[in-house]
Amino acid sequence: xxxxxxxxxxxxxxxxxxxxxxxxxxxxxxxxxxxxxxxxxxxxxxxxxxxxxxxxxxxxxxxxxxxxxxxxxxxxxxxxxxxxxxxxxxxxxxxxxxxxxxxxxxxxxxxxxxxxxxxxxxxxxxxxxxxxxxxxxxxxxxxxxxxxxxxxxxxxxxxx
Length: 160
Ligand SMILES: [Zn+2]
Known about the structure:
Bound molecules: zinc ion
Oligomer: single chain
Low-confidence stretches: 154-158
Radius of gyration: 21 Å
Number of helices: 5
Number of strands: 6
Strand order of the largest sheet: 1-2-3
Structural class: alpha+beta
Protein name: Transcriptional repressor NrdR
Shape: elongated
Order of helices and strands: EEEEEHHEHHH
GO molecular function: ATP binding; DNA binding; zinc ion binding
Distance between the termini: 46 Å
Organism: Microbacterium sediminis
Strand content: 15-25%
Family: Belongs to the NrdR family.
Helix content: 40-55%
Zinc finger (unnamed): 3-34
């Protein structure tokens, strides 16, 4: 990391802090030559391998765009979508891989989307998992119902 003041190629880390979302590290640095201090934000790179074989950087916007269509007409806000994309990124980064398959992003999207809106989830899953028949929908709905039945009734936390 070059010093932005004197271009000295060396710098000393004097403090490191992980950002609130845990996705980047902010480092306070000092240049040993001119003594000036500056900060850097470091994120580990995360690339997506598309079905075509092309590689592109992970983008929360793309996750949101992919889900937005399934959410049409549903009570889902842009803030909801942004949070969902953040959850997807966190899940994907937890794998520790620097390159992941586009398919993995779809998989990582299903969970948070199911929590967000079940109708949107069914729409998304039907496309992503290529539902072919009514049986596929029935199985997915039965799964959601089983999930509802498993939830404690009456004793719901305040935020739910
Ligand atoms: Zn310097």
